[in-house]
Amino acid sequence: MVRAFRILSVCALALRAVSAGAQQPAPGTPQSETQISDSIERISENHTRRIGNVEIHRPDGLTIHADSAELFQDEHRAILIGNVLFAQGDNRMTAERAEIDTETGLGTFFNAYGFTTLKPPKPPAPRPGAMAPPPTVVQDNTVYFFGDVIEKVAPKKYKITKGGFSTCVQPTPRWDLSADTVILNLDHYTILKNAILNVKGVPLFYLPVLYYPTKKDQRTTGLLIPAIGTSTLTGTSLHNAFFWAINRSQDATFYHDWFSKTGQGAGSEYRYNYGPGENGNIRAYYLDQKEVDYSADGGQTLPAGQSYEIRGSLNQQLPGNLRARANVNYFSSIAASQTFNTNIYDTSRNERTFGANVVGAWGSYTMNATVEHDEYFYDQNDSALSGSWPQVAFARNERPLFDSPAYFSVGAEFAHLLRESKSVDATTGAVTDVDSGLGRVNVAPQLRYPFKKWQWFTVNSTVSWRDTYYTRSLDPNDQTTPVDVPINRQFFTVQSQITGPVFNRVWDTPDNGYAEKFKHTVEPFLNVMYTSGTNDIGQIIQFDGIDSAVAGTQLTYGLNNRFFAKRSQAPGAPAQSTEIIDVSLTQSYYNNPVASIYDHQYQTTGLTAPSNYSPIALSVRALPTTAFNATVSAEIDSHYLKLRTVSAQGSYTWTNRVQTTVGWSKSNFIAGLAGFDNAATLDQVINSAFNVHSADNKVGSVYTFYYDVMNSLMVQQQVSVFYNSQCCGISMQYQAYNYGNNNSLSPIPSDHRFYLSFTLAGLGNFSPFNGALSSTPH
Q: Cα dist. 377→28, 194, 306, 482, 742 in Å?
């Protein structure tokens, strides 16, 4: 996300490289160098003058050129005049005049400028017993520097007066950082006084004092290039960041945002990576929001307040063959989260979550322990909490039972499950809190017998038994109120999954041009499941599939059509058989209609009244080439034979330069069908994203939109463009967001946002915490 701000450290190394020869034995010492000139004049015993095309070649590879040179052997001093050039390897520095103390290595260069190319340092060896960090690619750094006076005042300290530097090595550098005074302490710190960043000769920003650590490292601590923006909601904004390279495997970034209308924000991000499977990051942000009146923009008053947001994830290997994962995506104010962030996901996100998970495997035994806290907001005053605190599952995976063809497995779970609904009266502030949480213990052994004698006809049968104990239940009289009455439920399930008979047909098409062979497979299937009596389903508080078993027989039947093509994926590559089209049709029958509202394999489950038949589910997937794929899903009501819902999505990629994705979804009005007979609750939306860029990623654009067809409302449009040359570039982003109906938490009906960021070679930039510019290269 960020590249380290390395300019000052590179410049310091450049000065040390071009003046390294000054620390060697003094010019004029015959044992250490060769001196050439058109003429030589001995003024005194220890004072000589060389005139015309002076060249001094030192054993360390340093070559010094000048029009003339005066050498004072007894004073250990050299004065070089006229077109002075120091050259060593890829390092060059020129000056009108230079005075060097050949014994101490100190000296002064007048009207000097130069450049150097420095190799990145070798990465440190990993600590003993630790996995090596992933490789980091760091390019050579070419630095141009200049100054009226460049003084070496100590072995590792330099002073530049009225000068500066740039990594844009062009005939005319497109940017530079200049200052009245630059103090360089190698491997320690750098101080700039009255520093100005110039882009194309135009001053961009000014800092009276800039302190910056100067260290030899692949990433260097320092300030990042600011981003600026403007928004109807926040006004003009300035986004700043400071990057801290803790070590090769850890870093941190600190953010500060200033908004002319709404106040200020501050945050930080910490990241670490010790190799595959050992990494993590966490971002935290605090927003101090002031009161703003938006009546002039057709809105309302935004009250003052403070809010925070935390996001992060962790993936860590633990001793004992255990692995830990954790995640957090939490906000203190849903209003701030939905109005402050710029992407469509965050502006419509109603959930805040955090949790952790530890898994382990020992032979055929596994363990999974989870802690999860998930709160869903219907609006600012009403929310529902779910999750587990904790949920621990143990399992013995399938193993053959003795020497038989049957397989046996068993699972057990111990859980404290969270379920709570909160409602705050907007007028009185009274809180209504209904807690439906409970403890649950579950044991489920299973025996499976697969019949696979024929490829064209298979039967996979299982017999399972389940015993579940709940510490709480629903009142049997109204089946809605939680009561502290335990309940124990036992039942068994017999299930057979039948596939076939399978029909195949193959066509040889060597001259087709697309594929040398085609294959069509027709796979009818039937799943039969019988669940023993569980008539207490109305007293069970529902959390997941463990709780939703309903007594009775369920038949799930359907047909899969698969089309395969044997074709080469690349010129010269051998032909391979790949699936290009998959068409699936599925429906379920329940002899107990109540089971239809608990069958979660259908999207519209629970939206309608109980029925003996599920909707008819249609799924079509096409992958004719590696560059294109499309998916269509639909559910048809089995009684009215009308579409309940339909959705389609497709994507296309061309040589990694063009990526497009288009999606569409719709829910239909069906008169007389509860859940689909109210037009106000239906929706139809189109969303799309287009990403176009050059092969070298120097220039490109990203465009996204989200359109509400039902309400003829363009909810969101966003366009980002970027251009990067050899040593500088620019990124811009414009977004229009329409908050739509009166249920919006935003104080304004719509927001228009614009962000701008510069990219300078060697100076890192970043994406602000609210997600702006995240679609452009950084």
A: 82, 50, 19, 21, 16
